[in-house]
Input
Amino acid sequence: MIGVAGCGRMGGPMLVALQAAGFNAQGYDIRRVSYPRCTTDTPTFRSKLETLITVVRDIAQTEEVLFGAQNFSQAPNLRRIIICSTLSPRYVKSLSARVSPAVRLIDAPMSGAKIAAEQANLSFMLGGDASDLDAAQPLFDAMGKHFHRMGSFGMGMQAKVLNNLLAASNTAMTRLVLDWAETAGLDEGKLLGLIETSSGQNWFASGFETIEFSRDGMDAENTIGILVKDVDSALDAAPSDADLSLPKSVQAAIRALKPKT
Output
């Protein structure tokens, strides 16, 4: 059985995509959720588990899933773990020494937000042995459209946190520009149309009307809060001599976001 641990805004649609592709996929969450074949029954899920895909929020939840309350890393039939959460690359690389060598490890953080998960159109940044990635490719094909093999285990996560640092920068600056435009009396739709075909074009501005969190304010439980966490992950993996002032300023700007009507 393929198990998806964490059936939230990303994991739930990923579970549905795997099922639609014909895989024997079951979800697990500590809460009751509406996605098909998603259980809260830890022992039953654990007993059938062969491939574990983790899509939980952070390191603390990953620890619970792998080694803590759920302890799925010790599932009797487990053969493969795919880490899809965005975490510190240093933490991800440390898993190699903590998981049985009989269990193959892949890091596969994804990009595209909830809408891409629902459309099975995610972009995956992949790290792991080439043979392991080849074996898992049908799973990624079911959930996504773009696949970037970045190197050995941990390199997918390294690429993802750098990508998300840029995404956070685009989010912070686009929201600032739209706030200033509103103050100046400039029409938001016209400005976004201009940005789309001009030098300011970026993912956040281009998807502003479809990205579900585009108008949200900062909340520890929403996607804006996740962006703050993702910048922390990038900072944790920064070179020892790096100037951190700019990414920390971006993080502060994200933290200060207020809901936009």
Observations:
- Strands lie at 2-5, 25-28, 38-39, 51-54, 80-83, 104-107, 110-111, 122-127, 144-151.
- The chain has a mean pLDDT of 96.
- The longest strand covers residues 144-151.
